[in-house]
Write a structure and sequence with these properties.
The chain has 127 residues and is α+β, with helices and mostly antiparallel strands. The protein is 34% helix and 26% strand. Strands 4-3-2-1-5 form a 5-stranded mixed β-sheet.
Length: 127
């Protein structure tokens, strides 16, 4: 059975995913039948080739829950079913604490918690 699912690539702590069509028994990093799109959860970017996605869905490919949510957010599932699909940008820009922590860690910038902390008092000079 063919599935539309995610394969991971990118650096450690900075994941990016390819949305691919693969045999369901194959390992995550094995060769894919086709690449359908890209998903970057850290920077909230999603690009999907709608024609390829619909082609694989027409061929009977199943989707994982995550891929189904991503396709639904772009309105691709609705258009595939013959309905009017709308793009929901709020799905990717919804505040996610884990993503904020990863971004802060990756950029080395102080997060909002560090900015609210008061600086430590300096020790008094010895007489």
């Amino acid at each position: 059975m063919v599935k539309l699912r995610l394969t991971r690539f990118g650096k450690r702590g900075r994941p990016c995913y390819r949305i691919v069509a693969m045999e369901n028994r194959s390992p995550r990093e094995s060769r894919a039948l086709a690449q359908v799109g890209l998903y970057d959860p850290i920077h909230a970017r999603l690009t999907i080739d709608e024609e390829k996605a619909q082609l694989w869905l027409d061929r009977g490919a199943q989707m994982t829950e995550t891929v189904a949510a991503l396709l639904r957010s772009r309105g691709i599932l609705a258009r595939w079913r013959g309905l009017e699909g709308t793009v929901d940008e709020a799905v990717l820009t919804r505040p996610k604490p884990k993503r904020r922590r990863k971004l802060a860690k990756a950029t080395g910038a102080a997060g909002p918690a560090a900015a609210s902390e008061e600086p430590a008092p300096e020790p008094a000079a010895a007489p």
